[in-house]
Amino acid sequence: MLMRARFLRTALRSSRFNTSLVLVVVVLGFAILGPLLTGHDPNAVVGGVNSSPAAHPPLGTDNFGRDELTLLMYGTRNSLEIGAIAGLVAVLIGVLVGTVAGFYAGVVEEALMGVTNVLITIPAIVVLILLSIALGSRSAVTMGLIIGVTSWPWTARAVAAQTSSLRTREHIDIARLSGSSGFGIIVRDVIPYILSYLGMAFTLQLATAVLTEAALSLLGLGPTNTISLGILLQWSLLWEAVRQGVWWTFIPPTFFLSVVSFGLLLLNSSLDEIYNPRLQGGAGNCA
Amino acid sequence: MSPTFRRYILTKLGWYLIALAAAVSLNFFLPRLVPGNPVDLIVSRFLQGGGGGASASKTYQAFITQFDLDKPLSGQFFAYLVNILHGDLGQSFSLFPARVTTLISQAVPWTLALQLPAILLGWILGNVLGALAAYKRGAFDRNLFVTALAVSSIPYYALAIVLLYVFAVAVPIFPSAGGYSFGTIPNLSWGFMVDALTHYLLPFLSLLVIAIGGQAVGMRSMAIYELGSDYVNYATSLGVSDRRVLGYVFRNAMLPQITGLALALGTLVGGALITEIVFSYPGIGTLLFNAINANDYPLIQGVTLIIIVAVLLANFLVDLAYGVIDPRIRAARSGER
C-alpha cells in the first residue's frame, strides 16, 4: 500500500506521465464514446464528394460522400481493438513461454529460448504479409490475432530474463520447499513480481500493433470490410486524396495514428522512469 | 582466431542457418495454405480478357509445368529450394515472361539509395544529439527528448504523407510522384541527376528525420546510465576533465548503439516499403505493392525472401562485429554453452 501511494505521488508529479495519460484517455474516449454518440452509420452518404470541412460535416466528406468524423471514430475504435487483441495475445504467449523458460533452467530453457531467438530474427512484417495473403479475407479479430502471434518473442525474451533472475530469490525457495508445483509457483510467486513490467509490455505491444495494422493496410493487406485508421489512409492513397489536396481525409487519421503511438510510448517511458529512479531528470552526476 | 571465438562464430552461424531454413519454409508454405492453386486464379483472369478454348488450356498447361504445380507439395518445395540455390526465383505472374530476379535487381538500387544514406546519417546525428542531451540535461534535454520521442513514435509513413502534402501539394516545391520525371529515361546526364535529386529529397528527408529521432532516444538513455556509473563518479572525484570523462562515456554508450545501427541496417531493404508507395518511388516497396495487388505470388515471395536474407545477413554481421569488438560477450557466450 505504501509503495502504491509513493508510486502515485511520483507519477502525478511527472508531467510526462500526466501528458501521456491525458492523450491516452482522450483517444480512448473518442474511440469508445464517439461511435455510441454519433448515431451515424459510418458508411452512410451524408453529403457531396470530397466536400471540405464545414459546419455540417465538421471534418468534411470522403470520396463517396461519407462523413469523415464518423469514419474516424469507427476507424480509431477498430484500430485500438485490433491493437488490444494483438497486445493481449502477444503478452499471453510471451508470459507463458518466458516464465516457463526462465523458471525451468536447462533443456526446457534452451529449447524455448532457441525457438524465440530464431523467431525474433525473422522479420515480423514478412510473416504478416505471407499470412495475410494466405488468409484472403481478414476480420478485425483475425488481424489482431495474426499480429499478436507474430510479435510475442520480444516479450518472451524479456520475461524469461526477469523470471530467471527471480528464480534464486528466497520466497521462491520457500514456495518450492513447501511443496508448490512449478506452475503454482509461476502463477503465485513469479507473475505478481513482473506485473508492472507486463503492463508496460502491453502498452508497447498495443502501440506497435496499431502501427503494424496501418502498415499492412497501406500494403493492401488490411482488414476486409472494416474501417480502421490504416484503411482510411489506404483509401486516401488509392483515391489520390493527397495529390488532390483533400487534406481532411488523410491528416486526421495520420494525426490519430501518431497520437496513439506517441501517447502509449510516452506512457511506457514515464512508467519506466517511475520504476527506475536513475532515469529521472536533474540527477546528472557529470557536469 | 582463438578457439572460443571460432566456437562463438560457428554457434551463431548455426542459429542463423536454422532461422534461414525456418524463414524459407514459411516463405514457401504460408501462401500455399490458400485453397485452390494460384494458376487457376491467373488463368481465370486471362480468360476474362477474351481468348479461351484450346489456347487457354495450352496456357494453363504451360503455367502448371512452369510452376511445378503438377508435382506434390513436397516435390514443389524441393524444386523451390533447388531453384533458390541456383539464384532462380521464377517468373512473375503479372509481368509474365519477366524473371523475378530481374525485377528485384531493377528495384533494389532505388531502395538502397534512399535507405542507406538516411540510416547512416540518422545514426550519426541521432547519437550526437542523444549524448548531448544526456550531458546537458535540463531544458535542452527535456525539449529534445520529448521532440525525439514524438518524432520516433510517428510512424514513418505518416511523416511521408504529411511531407508529400505540405511540400509537393500545398506548397508545390517538389515533384509529387516517381523517382524521376515522367517520360525521361534514366541516364547519367547532369539534367537527369538534378531531376532525380528533386524527386529524391522528400522521401529521403521523411526517413532521415525518423531515424534521427529513434537513435537519439536510445543514445540518451544509454548515456544517462553511463553517466551515473561508478567509473564516472570516480573519475570526476579525481578531477578528470569533463571532456575526457565524456569521451569515455560516449565510447561505452556507443557499444549498444551498434546494435541500433545493425537493426537499422537490417531494415535496409524492407524498412521503407510504404515510403516508396506514398511517393510512388520505384523501389522494392512499390514492386511489392503492385505484386500484392496483382496476386503475383512468385514476385511477392521473391521480395519477402530478399527482405528476410537482408535482415538475417545484417544481424549475423553485427554478431560477428560484436564478437570482435567486445571480449565480454565472447566470453559470456562461450561460457554459457
Describe, in plain words, how this protein is organized in 3D.
The complex is a heterodimer of chains A (287) and B (337). Chain A is mostly helical. In chain A, 73% of the residues lie in helices and 0% in strands. The longest helix of chain A has 37 residues, at 182-218. Chain B has 14 helices and no strands. The interface between A and B is large, with 52 and 70 residues.
Supply the CATH architecture of chain A.
Orthogonal Bundle
Helix content of chain B: over 70%
Report the end-to-end length of chain A measured between terminal Cα atoms. 38 Å
What is the straight-line distance between the termini of chain B? 19 Å
Most extensive interface, residues per chain? A-B, 52 and 70 residues
CATH fold label of chain A: MetI-like fold
State the shape of chain B: globular
Strand percentage of chain A lies at: under 5%
Look at the structure and name the CATH superfamily of chain A: MetI-like
Instruction: Tell me the series of helices and strands of chain B, N- to C-terminal.
Output: HHHHHHHHHHHHHH
Biggest sheet statistics of chain A: none
Global morphology of chain A: elongated
E-strand count of chain A: 0
Beta-strand percentage of chain B?
Answer: under 5%
Q: Give the biggest sheet of chain B.
A: none
Uncertain parts of chain A: 281-287
Oligomeric description of these chains: heterodimer
Mean pLDDT rating of chain B: 82
